[in-house]
Design a protein that fits this description.
The chain has one domain: Aminopeptidase, CATH 3.40.630.30. It contains three helices and seven strands, in the order E-H-E-E-E-H-E-H-E-E. A seven-stranded mixed beta sheet has the order 1-2-3-4-5-7-6, with helices on both faces.
């Protein structure tokens, strides 16, 4: 199990912000070989869910209230360090993110843009596919919703 913390952008230390951007770059740009604009101006309006193990950020998401990204509340930039994935921390960081949306925004309906290969992972967390697959930054994605009605 990892320790989780939820912080606003202004509450992040410079060291935390640097590690978050480093982790996102390691996975989304280098590992997935995808050139895209990670620093998109949305970090300032989101809440940041940090997954911490041995005083290191090894998992992360950012969450949005309804209307800030999608019409529904949402979770994005879901990432776990490659050498930590064997411990299934993706479930821990996602559960913490789902709970944070409920606690901070009073919402239970959540929309995500999921990479297709992770569809079963999100199904296990209660998300269901909506619509057709699409390309986002050259990677196949599908919209998924958690919470009824959908």
């Amino acid at each position: 199990m990892i320790q989780t913390k939820v912080k606003t952008f202004s509450e992040l230390s410079l060291k935390e912000l640097y590690r978050i951007l480093q982790l996102r770059s390691e996975v989304f740009v280098v590992e997935q070989d995808c050139v895209y604009q990670d620093i998109d101006g949305k970090d300032e309006k989101s809440l940041h869910v940090l997954g911490i193990k041995n005083n290191q950020i090894i998992a992360y998401t950012r969450i949005f209230k309804p209307g800030d990204y999608f019409k529904e509340s949402s979770i994005g930039r879901v990432v776990v360090a490659k050498n930590e994935r064997q411990y299934k921390y993706g479930y821990d960081i996602m559960k913490a993110s789902i709970n944070a949306i409920k606690d901070y925004y009073g919402e239970t309906k959540i929309k995500i843009s999921a990479q297709i290969y992770l569809k079963n992972f999100y199904n296990n967390l209660g998300f269901h596919e909506v619509g057709e697959a699409y390309l986002e930054d050259g990677i196949p994605h599908i919209a998924m919703i958690k919470g009824l009605p959908f």
